[in-house]
Amino acid sequence: MSAVEDRIAELGLTLPDVVPPLAAYQPAVRTGAYVFTSGQLPLTDGKLPVTGKVGAEVTAEEAKELAARCALNGLAAVKSVIGDLDRVVRVVKVVGFVASAPDFTGQPGVINGASELLGEILGEKGVHARSAVGVAVLPLDAPVEVEFLVEVTD
Question: Judging by DSSP bridges, how do beta strands 129-135 and 88-99 pair with one another?
Fold first, then answer.
């Protein structure tokens, strides 16, 4: 097991299997020194633990936990392309989408779930640029979706 996966285990987490594509795309694609993930939903064992809009059916705290799950799913997608998460040089950019009730404005706090987990797992390599965007609806009525760009080494 890699040092990164050891760190995931120390946090009491498990790197999941790669979430199979729900449409015509790949979970992650490498080009040169970069891996781009597709948008990762907070699927656990193939299911969403909760659906709906943040600020209505889903609390901000629940959504923050779901964003962390999205990050774990994203790391699994990265691993599927590079084989060993110790090859991650850094997370360059994270983009988070939050299916938001009309008056919900806490998107940055929700996406902190992904950002904070990446920092806990990868340390300085997990520090990244980021966007947190409120949207009307996400696939499968998911509350959050996260994608990222990772620099890797051979």
Answer: parallel
Do residues 37 and 74 lie in contact, with contact meaning Cβ atoms separated by under 8 Å?
Answer: yes
* Residues 6, 113: Cα–Cα separation, whole Å: 20
Closest CA relative to residue 7, chosen from 120, 87, 114 = 120
Question: Does residue 11 have a pLDDT over 90?
Answer: yes
Cα separation of 34 and 29, whole Å? 8
Tokens of 63: 């959504």
pTM beyond 0.90: the answer is: yes
The three-state secondary structure class of 95 is strand
Are 35 and 80 a contacting pair, CB within 8 Å?
no
Residue 78: enclosing H or E segment and its boundaries?
Answer: helix 60-82
Helix, strand, coil: what percent of the chain each, to 5? 35, 25, 35
Extended beta strands in 100-143, E state: 129-135
* Integer Cα distance of 119 and 84 in angstroms: 18
90, 125 in Cβ contact below 8 A? yes
